[in-house]
Amino acid sequence: MASTPIKQVTGKGVYVPGDDIDTDRIIPARFMKCITFDGLGEYLFYDVRKTESGEDKQHNLNDPRFADASILVSGNNFGCGSSREHAPQSILRAGYNAVIAGSFAEIFFGNSTNLGVVCVIASDADRATIAAAIEADPSIDVTIDVENLKVNFGEQSISCEIKPGARESLLSGNYDPLSELLEGAADVAKTAGALSYMQA
Amino acid sequence: MSKSLFEKVWDAHAVRQLANGQTQLLIGTHLIHEVTSPQAFGMLRDHGLKVQYPHRTFATVDHIVPTNEAVEPYSDPLAQGMIEELRKNCAENDVTFFDTNTGKQGVVHIVGPEQGITQPGTTIACGDSHTATHGAFGAIAFGIGTSQVRDVLATQTIALNELKVRRINVNGDLLPGVYAKDVILHIIRLLGTQGGTGYAYEYAGTTFDNFTMEERMTVCNMSIEGGARVGYVNPDETTFDYLKGRPYSPTGEAWDAAVAEWKSFASDEGCSYDDVVTIDASEIQPTVTWGITPAQGVGIEENIPSIAEGATQSDRDSIAEALEYMQFEGGSAVKGKKIDVAFIGSCTNGRLSDFEEVAKFVEGRKVAAGVQAIIVPGSQVVAKIAEAKGLDKIFVEAGFEWRAAGCSMCLAMNPDKLIGDQLCASSSNRNFKGRQGSPTGRTMLMSPLMVAAAAVTGEVSDAREVFGFAPVGV
B142 to chain A nearest CA, in Å? Predict the structure, then answer.
């Protein structure tokens, strides 16, 4: 469905270090016994944040200095593993609307984009610079400029990448493809009609 | 122009190009389960939409089903609520549901093939990343998120970028005691967890030519663990022999027409690939993961790497993190790690041939004291055949628990979970932190027979030694 175009995202940042942060880490499977996505925000990075007895661990995500953060900064291959949309849903519902990583797993990236969670790629060195800047001053604004492929923070600016299709979808507000897919119904029927296994 | 199977199937299912450059792709076959579909049905209701092609969606229940509890209501009310929601959604939308009382229920990636729903030259999607399993039949099959499950229900299509194709040739005979599971763990070890991002993997070579369908499924299943959303094997006589006579397979004249059509989808000789990797089958050893990603694996005779062995700082950080979580010493032997739990099952290795192979060797042996060993059939069909062959009795006699069909301990959305920092030898597909239900639980991935060897010795072992195989090289 057409939504508001996302030309840029601005917020405070929080650094979640590590490569290969998988979807079970983002939200453990045991919290997914649900029939709606409501309430999943509570379990974002649960085992990263909590001890087995449920107490807070020492972690940026528990640090009050980063309590207002809405942009995650992380490592390579972020979101690998499951196709479960519960992962980006929990990110969104915990109040984050963008992730800056070294790379993204493909299904996670697609799921996030469909929800309007902006996922951009930045180099290891540039992410280290952002992480250092928000550590030094958690109150600085981080702005992801989707249009110009930049991340601006404090007085600094770095380049970022985003898949071409996803960038256009965000800029046009058509990142949720449903209405466009529905418009193709007649063409879908034609394609389906040519395939023997599709016949009822 | 010669084309790969991927390109042919893509072209046959491409509906049109979307404004952002993506393709609207027809999904011929849609498989759903209880975890990732209820929210999609909810979105459909919110938008006032109906299921557009209900005869092309098939449902089963697998993740939350308790495998040690036959009667509803289940003791977990959340699980009960999820199965009831799926029942309601299927009934209201005329979707076929292989429910627990049909004799056909099981893990979605085992049910599709055994019912003959999974066919060559088709597109298949499921809200589950292990959907690439179906690629074993020469289908283009991939995992999708719940918003895309909604899209398929409402339009039978999704918006997708075309993938590149990497052909992975494995040639030659596998050594005794080396299985399809070792082949995919080896491939992921070589190419890494993100090596396949943006690619479909075409598995080929004489090793794959000689594989059974169940072996091909084991490899395709774990494509996503190497970052590849799609993995497939070109269809051949092995594929057609498997499909003949299955409930949803074509019959009579339609069968012959279907086989001719299926053959036409196979990659053309000499078609071009974006990348080609070739592996000698004899290099592959029984492989065991020691870390927290499926790429962190070693041959059973090898040592776990030390931090210093990492080529880059990022590698060294990953090794350090994995060693700390797994409580292993860098440089120590992988062999001999004491296990607490042995799990044989899952969409990777929960098929009849997996259980037949294990039964052959554990008959007359006993699970080591202090080890909990469970064997979970991937479907009710698998369970029934295994029981008719008496495999369940062999397992129970040896000290394994024989369960009902489901995902069980692969992902701990049901009562089967690790406790504390238990170490589990597992035939499943993911060794992520906390994957098996305990935030500190530890998983080592390996073939079913290697799990059986660990179960009877109580530690990670070389199945070839435990079960008296011919020594390597003889």
Answer: 9
Which CATH number belongs to the domain containing residue B442 in this structure? 3.30.499.10
Contacts of A165 in chain B (CB under 8 A): 20-22, 161
Q: Which chain B residue has its CA at the smallest distance from A83's CA?
A: B129
β-bridge mates for residue B425, sequence order:
B342, B444
Q: Which CATH superfamily is domain A8-175 in?
A: Aconitase, domain 4 (3.20.19.10)
Name which of A141, A137, A138, A57 is nearest A98 in CA terms. A141
Closest alpha carbon within chain A to B50: A182
Place of tokens 């909810």: B42
Give chain B positions within 8 Å (CB) of A181. 24, 151, 154-155, 157-159
Contact A56, A10 (CB under 8 A): no
Tell if the CB–CB gap between A188 and B257 is shorter than 8 Å.
no
What does the alpha-carbon distance between residue B298 and residue A105 come to, in Å, rounded to a whole number? 24
What is the rounded CA–CA span in Å between residue A17 and residue A75?
6
- Range of B376's domain? 287-466
CA–CA separation, A31 vs A93, rounded Å?
A: 14
Same domain? For B270 and B305 the reply is no
As a whole number of angstroms, the distance between CA B58 and CA B29 comes to: 8
Over its C-alpha atoms, chain A yields an Rg (Å, rounded) of: 18
* B410 within domain boundaries: yes
Distance from CA of A173 to the nearest CA of B (A): 11
For each successive 10 residues of chain B (474 residues), what is the average pLDDT? 97 97 97 97 97 98 95 96 98 98 98 98 98 98 97 98 97 97 98 96 98 98 97 98 98 97 97 98 98 98 98 94 98 98 98 98 97 98 98 98 98 94 98 96 98 98 91 44
Report the predicted TM-score, pTM, of the whole model to 2 decimal places. Answer: 0.97
| Contact call for A184 and B155, based on CB within 8 A | yes
User: pLDDT tens for residues A4-13?
Assistant: 999 999 999 9
Amino acid A164: pLDDT: 81
Cross-chain Cβ contact B15/A107 below 8 Å? no
The angle at the Cα of B160, spanning B154 to B165, to the nearest 5 degrees, equals 140
Partner-chain contact A81 B129, CB within 8 Å:
yes
For the cut 70, the answer to whether the pLDDT of residue A77 exceeds it is yes
Q: Kindly state whether residues B266 and B358 are assigned to the same domain.
A: no
At A26, is the secondary structure helix, strand, or coil? helix
* Interchain contact, A165 vs B24, CB within 8 Å: no
- What's the confidence (pLDDT) of residue B151? 98
Q: Indicate whether this complex's ipTM tops 0.90.
A: yes
| Nearest chain A residue (CA) to B25 | A188
Contact call for B193 and A80, based on CB within 8 A: yes
**Minimal CA separation from B413 to chain A, in Å:** 5
Contacts of B143 (CB under 8 A, 6+ apart): A82, A83, A107, B125, B126, B127, B128, B129, B130, B131, B132, B224, B229
Does B292 contact A20 at a Cβ distance shorter than 8 Å?
A: yes
Closest CA relative to residue A110, chosen from A199, A23, A16, A12? A23
Helix (H) or strand (E) holding B336: none
Residue A67 has pLDDT above 50, yes or no: yes
Name the residue type at position A34.
C
Query: Are A35 and B198 within 8 A, CB to CB?
Result: no
CA gap B193, B187 in Å, rounded: 10
Rounded Cα distance, B362 and B382, in Å: 19
Contacts of A176 in chain B (CB under 8 A): 147
pLDDT band at A167 (very low <50, low <70, confident <90, very high): very high
